[in-house]
Amino acid sequence: MCDTCGCSSDGGAVLRKPGENDYHVHVSDGAHEHTHTHASDEHHAKPHLHEGQHDHAHGNHHHEGTSRKVLLEQDVLQKNNLLAERNRGYFEARNIFVLNFLSSPGSGKTTLLEKTIPLLQKRFPVAVIEGDQQTTNDADRIHALRVPVIQVNTGSGCHLDALMVNRAVKELDLQDDSLLCIENVGNLVCPALFDLGEALKVVIISVTEGDDKPLKYPNMFHEADLCILNKIDLLPYVDFDVAKCRENAMRVNHHLEWFNLSAKTGEGLASWQEWLEKRLTQH
Amino acid sequence: MHEMSIAMSIVEAVDAKARAEGAGRVSEVDLLVGKLAGIHPESLKFCFSAAAKGTLAQEALLAIEEPEGVGECGECGMRFPVTFYYAECPDCRSLRVTIVSGEEFLIQSITIEEEGE
Q: Within this chain, do residues B26 and B48 fall inside the same structural domain, yes or no?
């Protein structure tokens, strides 16, 4: 049961906004629709579908139990992928450059956003979608930068999906010609499978992790378009081989772009900023 | 545990198709899960039985075919088996290898029972 409104939407994702304690929106698809907003009107409500409507009057014809095979040839992730493409089309039409940030917990995704956004926001509008199982802690940090942000709490979920992003975007005041950063749930496994409609996937690792991480979690590094090695200010204190890590990552994905930086000290941020500005102006 | 949300989307697609076909129940679901698809078949089976409860697929057998990974060398064009993304061409040692098979993730078919009442 939802502990905020008392409804019975077990385990589903919930959207939250920093500083608005009574605001929350449940993310669900049409078949079991239960979306409501306490802070605004119910413009997302869709008609309920009732199981009982599937009544095909079987009683009229008696046939023996026959079995037959029906071809589907359907991608398991088709529903997510179709919705991701809808998101992508929307972003393209409004010239919104969308990055999906992926990493294990604690590699510095939120800190990187906190440091990157002020460098860009004078020239480009920025908005953020934060994904975590619980709390609005990350969204609160982004909110302090005065950019539009929405928190998706996935509950028991281990990744963001295209539906959550689709819903979150409807609650965000996105501007044309802007940057949207999606910070995925900290997890190097599951989010690799779910297209959100982003332009590029950015994987972040920090030097406090192992330099064999790209080999241990190859799906994520295979799917990523660029890799940011964070916390390089700690290199003197840890046993981390930057060249080896990069080589490992390139073995999994030879198209991977690479940045070394420290979000904390600002070292290396300039070339990352330059890359982003170039993409945003070309975009 | 992305297998659970994946199991739920499989059940949803199967149940919808079975209803559209007027099925009484679904006895088998045939999946194609490539060995490089990032899916663990055993946990998918486990999650499927939980996700299928109360649907037409609740007694369905989940049959999973697992195609092997095949890479193609971008230098010499050779095709060879791969077990992961960091493949090296056994002939010319190039790392410019594209995966051409093993990433499949499809619901191939379902077997439905048209039970009379």
A: yes
Q: Identify which of A67, A219, A222 has the shortest CB distance to residue B27.
A: A67
Helix, strand, coil percent values for chain A (each to nearest 5): 35, 20, 45
pLDDT band at A139 (very low <50, low <70, confident <90, very high): very high
B54 and B76 together in one domain: no
Q: Cα distance from B96 to chain A (closest Cα, Å)?
A: 7
Task: Tell me, rounded to whole angstroms, the distance of Cα A217 from its chain centroid.
Answer: 18
Looking at domain A79-282, its CATH class is alpha beta
Parent domain of B85? 68-101
Same domain, B75 and B62: no
ipTM value greater than 0.85:
no
Whether B39 and B81 map to the same domain: the answer is: no
The string of DSSP codes covering B7-64 is HHHHHHHHHHHHHHTT-SEEEEEEEEE-TTSS--HHHHHHHHHHHTTTSTTTT-EEEE
Q: For A79, which residue in chain B has the nearest alpha carbon?
A: B9
Name residue B99's beta-bridge partners.
Answer: B71
